[in-house]
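This protein record is not my work; I was only asked to verify it. Would you go through it and say whether the fold makes sense for this chain? Here is the record exactly as it was handed to me.
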Amino acid sequence: MSISILLIDDEADYSETMRFWLMANGYNVRSASSGMDGLEEVKKERPDIVFLDMQMPDMNGIETLREIRRLYPVIPVIMVTAYATDEMKGDTLEIGVSGFFEKGENFKEAARLISEVLREIKR
């Protein structure tokens, strides 16, 4: 069974790099460049995991996470950020984020987060 991951990020270069890495590791990856487009993708084909950028124009990551939770309370969502405040992280934890991935981190951390989320799903 292939794990499907939706990557919602407005930075095209970062999104392509992350998408390539995820696909090279055997994941089925779709991407969206805004919160609204990401929500449409979630509705169209419910992913196993969502990587969601915190800072996006129009609809930010917190607003997008709230809407994902309203539609699908159990889809694991990992917030991706280059600069999140503790307050922002606290807000997302209250809404039900599954983890945080800093954009500057090595992709080994992304792999660890995915493994952790998949273990939680299987429980």
In short: The CA atoms of residues 81 and 102 lie 5 Å apart.
